[in-house]
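Today's session is about reading a structure prediction critically. Students often jump straight to the picture, but the first step is always the sequence itself: look for stretches that repeat, for charged clusters, for runs of hydrophobic residues. Only then move on to the predicted structure, which in these notes is written as discrete structure tokens rather than atom positions. Here is the chain we will use throughout the hour.
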Amino acid sequence: MSNLQEIPLFPLNSVLFPKGKLTLQIFERRYLDLVSRSLKSDTGFGITLLKEGGEVAAPGRKQTIHDMGTYARIVDWDQLPNGLLSIIVEGVSKFRIKEHWIADSDLLMARVCFSETEISGERSIPVQDECSDMTELLHVLEKHPAVQDMNLQIDYENLWELGWRLSELIPVSLEKKQELLELDDPWERIRNIEATVHFLEK
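Below is the predicted structure for this chain, in token form.
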């Protein structure tokens, strides 16, 4: 990992992978300001999984986060009937946090190193025949109505994408998804997913 940069963070009870999508409802002032700046400057922010604490700020409630997340950009937004702002973000690149702090704006900021390999639209790795069971599983998962609503554009010929989408969609805990995110080898990720699926089927 390289390219040390300073970015704002958005801690969530969710794990996002490159090219994955999340729908978020925004109501806290710090995040409304963040979204406004992101839209105006065409920049993004980091999505990180919470270890401790809630998504909404509260007096005396401390947030702790995992040190690996995914940089995301806003790809759509809408004003909901309840007055809240809804945005859809898409994962771009994996990163590792080197240090983080609370800014004057109450946003969590971090200096991060970006992955040189796990980046949306970068180098593709061909999917081998030995992954046919995992490819078939992803086709099944993609047919679920909730997944269809996400309007994912999946490249089934790219091993990176096969691992990313399966990691997001298989029914495992957030901690397990985070474990899969933190793997840097796409083959290791697929083997881990395969072992997990076989365990769930028993």
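Discussion point for the tutorial: Residues 2-119 form a domain with the Archaeosine Trna-guanine Transglycosylase; Chain: A, domain 4 fold (CATH 2.30.130.40).
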